[in-house]
Design a protein that fits this description.
about 450 residues; alpha/beta; TIM Barrel; 8-stranded parallel beta barrel; two-stranded antiparallel ribbon; 13 helices; globular; binds phosphoenolpyruvate; binds manganese (II) ion; 3-deoxy-7-phosphoheptulonate synthase activity; transferase
Length: about 450
């Protein structure tokens, strides 16, 4: 394999080892789909991407907070107005809770409108004694546990593109067209959450915001401003399928730089962050904000190399390190990383993913996570940052606006035996709307000035 740092092009990743790529059965069909994608309009625009980067630069210094969340894996069959609205609603609620407590802007980034490809620990799984290929996300194959269902089909990438476009269209309408106006905070409460302790806390806060707006109105401060009536919402997904990401990469006419226009922010997963791997090579050349998942087995030197390769100019807002160590390992790994980064003066948004290293299989056989473990990793994340004098800049969650039973615990104390009731995820277990709001209230206590 070529040594890293030869000249970057949007296809130079092909000279490196690309892990976790589907074994597409038909090269010609794949090439046709990628050529079609390359002709289609970008999903997001360079100007929006730059705005996100400016916001993230503020999260580096603690002057903003990153809230990133959504499905582990978006399901094509569930891309509809209700689900998009419910996910947006809970993210807006969480953002309000955090903004109010932290007195700083909250940057809202969905794992949405393109989170359709999944890395897997194993290439195959055993279904009733038959070994079949693993599910790799709706943009690659289907959940149907048959050999045929698991065959990669490049046309699914085109379908993913169109579904991402229609999701984005609705998100833009909701966030720009008045739905997200701060005068409507009370209306974002989900029916099934409203009567819970979390719902009531939220309602109290919403009333305070209403009062503040009414007060401004009364004394003549204009309240029909975009600051109150609109909000910015950004999209993100794991940049896993490099062919797709390459096809969505465009030269920006303003700056002359290359942007991956499939989403505002892209991240490199724990399984594909090799210093000399194709994912790192591809992402080093696009100008989007980039996240890197950092797990418990990461080596300090590798993380430093990644930072140097992906952000050679130490630009603030370019790089977010999404740590996912697990509640038992965060203590042993995070402090050294923070000390080294501080010593080097790296500009990093430190974000906590308290989900991925706290997963286990429940007695019922469901893959789950315990609310208390999630909270415990978040609390340790904040405490360690405080102790090291560094900035806890964000949170990365798998969550949904739906009333699912996928993670145990939380205010309603979902039990192992209840997981089967509404276990709807196609991949990892998500916090439901109430549990998500509860996390936001807990973080609110930690980010209060
Ligand atoms: C994910 O975010 O769904 C994921 C697979 O995470 P990680 O790469 O951290 O394991
Ligand atoms: Mn996941």
């Amino acid at each position: 394999m070529a040594a890293i740092q030869t000249e970057w092009t949007k296809s130079s990743w092909k000279n490196y080892t690309a892990l976790q790529q589907p074994k597409w059965p038909d090269q010609q069909k794949l090439d046709k789909v990628l050529a079609d994608l390359a002709e289609l309009p970008p999903l997001v625009f360079a100007g929006e991407i730059r705005t996100l980067k400016e916001g993230l630069a503020k999260a580096v210094t603690g002057d903003a907070f990153l809230l990133q969340g959504g499905d582990c894996s978006e399901d094509f069959s569930k891309v509809n107005a209700t689900n998009i609205r419910e996910t947006l609603k809970v993210l807006l609620q969480m953002a309000v809770v955090l903004t109010y407590a932290g007195e700083k802007p909250v940057i809202k980034v969905g794992r949405i409108a393109g989170q359709f490809a999944k890395p897997r620990s194993s290439d195959t799984e055993n279904v009733d004694g038959v070994e079949i290929a693993s599910y790799r996300g709706d943009m690659v194959n289907t959940l149907e546990p048959t050999k045929e269902g698991r065959k990669p089909n490049p046309k699914l990438m085109l379908k993913g593109y169109y579904l991402a476009a229609s999701t984005l269209n609705l998100l833009r309408a909701f966030t720009r067209g008045g739905y997200a106006a701060l005068t409507r905070v009370q209306a974002w409460n989900h029916e099934f959450v409203a009567q819970s302790p979390m719902g009531r806390s939220y309602d109290r806060l919403a009333r305070q915001i209403d009062q503040a707006i009414n007060f401004m109105n009364t004394i003549g401060v204009p309240t029909d401003t975009p600051q109150l009536n609109q909000t910015q919402f950004f999209t993100s997904h794991e940049a896993l399928l490099l062919g797709y990401e390459e096809a969505m990469t465009r030269v920006d006419s303003t700056s002359g730089g290359c942007y991956d226009c499939s989403a505002h922010m892209l991240w490199i997963g724990e399984r594909t962050r090799q210093v000399d791997g194709a994912h790192v090579e591809f992402l080093r050349g696009v100008l989007n904000p980039i996240g890197i998942k950092i797990g418990p087995t990461s080596k300090l030197d590798d993380v430093k190399r990644l930072i140097e390769i992906l952000n050679p100019d130490n630009e603030a807002g370019r790089l977010t390190l999404i740590t996912r160590f697990g509640k038992n390992n965060i203590e042993t790994v995070l402090p050294a990383l923070l000390r080294e980064s501080k010593k080097e003066g790296f500009n990093i948004v430190w974000s906590c993913d308290p989900m991925h290293a706290n997963t286990y299989t429940a007695e019922s056989g469901h893959k789950t996570r315990n609310y208390n473990d999630i909270l415990s990793e978040i609390s340790r994340f904040f405490e360690i940052h405080w102790a090291e004098g560094t900035i806890p800049g964000g949170i990365h969650l798998e969550m949904t606006g739906d009333n699912v039973t996928e993670c145990i615990g939380g205010a309603r104390n979902i039990a192992d035996a209840e997981l089967h009731r509404r276990y709807n995820t196609s991949c990892d277990p998500r916090l439901n709307a109430e549990q998500s709001l509860e996390v936001a209230f807990q973080i609110a206590d930690m980010i209060k000035r």
